[in-house]
Amino acid sequence: MDSHLGTFVKPVAVIPFDDTNLKAYWKFDEASGDIINQSESDVDLGAGADMQVTGATYGATGIIDEALSFDGVNDYGEVGTSVSQWNYIHEANGLSTICAWIKLTTLATDTEYIFKTNNNNSAGRGFVFHITGAEGLNMQITTATATCFEGVTTANYVPDTTNWHFYVVRTDLSTATDTWIWHRDNGNEEKGDRTNIGTAGDATNKMICCIRNDLSTRAFAGDLDETSFWNKIMSSDDETSLYNGGAGLAIY
C-alpha cells in the first residue's frame, strides 16, 4: 500500500537471464586466488572451469564491478586440467557462443592469444580465440595437423585502447555456410561462409588464457570482464540483454 496515494503498488518481478547451456561464466570480481566459474546451469563445468591465475592484476575497473588485468608479458590463466571439456566447440556439428568484454591496453601488432586449447602452432586439435594485429579478432578450429575452420574480422573490429567493447562470436559447425558470426557492441555483424570441418577427439591442451601454451610468448595486454562460454548459438535477444546498452549485464 502506498501511504501517500492510498493505492496498492504491485511489485515488479525480476526475470533471471536464461542460462540454458552455459558452460562457464567468469565475473572476474575476485580479490585474489582462482577466478571461479559462476555458471549455475545444468551443464556447467563447475570447478573444472575455475581459472588459476599467474601474475595478472586483480581489481581493475571493469564494465561491471572489477576486472582482471593482463600485462602482455607473462600474465596468464589456466582453466582446470581437462583437455576434453571444451570439445563441444570444435567437434563436428558443434554449436558454441563466446561472449567477452575486452579492453585492450596496447594495440596488438602480432597475434595475442585470449583463449586457446590447441598447441603452440596452428596445428593441434582444439580452438583458439585471439587478436591478430590490424586484422581484428580471429576464431580458429584446428585439427591435429592444420587449421580446418577460421573466421577473421576486418580491422573495423580491432579494439581500441580506451574503451570496453563487447564481443560475441557464434560458431555453428552443423552447417557448411554461415558457420561463424562476429558481433561487436551488439552490432556491426560480420559472418562468413566457411567449409564445415569438425575435428573429433580431445583438445591438444587444457585451456590457457591470455598467453600461448609455452607460457612465455604472444601474451594478451588488456583487461577481461564478464566472459561466458555457451554450448549453443545465442539468440540476438539474449545478446542484446547482455550488452545492455553498453553497460553490461551480470548473468547472476
Report on this structure.
The protein has 252 residues and is mainly beta. It has a single domain, classed as Jelly Rolls, CATH 2.60.120.200. Helices cover 5% and strands 36% of the residues. The protein has helices at 87-90, 236-243; strands at residues 22-26, 51-54, 57-61, 66-71, 76-79, 95-104, 111-116, 126-132, 137-142, 147-152, 165-172, 180-184, 187-192, 207-209, 221-230.
Helices and strands in order:
Elements: E1 22-26, E2 51-54, E3 57-61, E4 66-71, E5 76-79, H1 87-90, E6 95-104, E7 111-116, E8 126-132, E9 137-142, E10 147-152, E11 165-172, E12 180-184, E13 187-192, E14 207-209, E15 221-230, H2 236-243
Antiparallel strand pairs: 1-15, 2-5, 3-4, 4-15, 5-14, 6-11, 6-15, 7-8, 7-14, 8-9, 9-10, 11-12, 12-13
Short synopsis of the structure:
The protein is mainly beta and 252 residues long. It has helices at 87-90, 236-243; strands at 22-26, 51-54, 57-61, 66-71, 76-79, 95-104, 111-116, 126-132, 137-142, 147-152, 165-172, 180-184, 187-192, 207-209, 221-230.
Number of domains: 1
Q: Ends: how far apart?
A: 30 Å
Strand content: 35-45%
> Overall mean pLDDT score?
88
Q: Count the E strands.
A: 15
Q: State the helicity in percent bands.
A: under 10%
What structural class do helix, strand and pairing data support? Answer: mainly beta
CATH class: Mainly Beta
Give the second-level CATH assignment, the architecture. Sandwich
- Poorly predicted regions: 1-5, 8-14
Radius of gyration: 19 Å
CATH topology: Jelly Rolls
Largest sheet, in brief, is:
8 strands, antiparallel
How many helix segments? 2
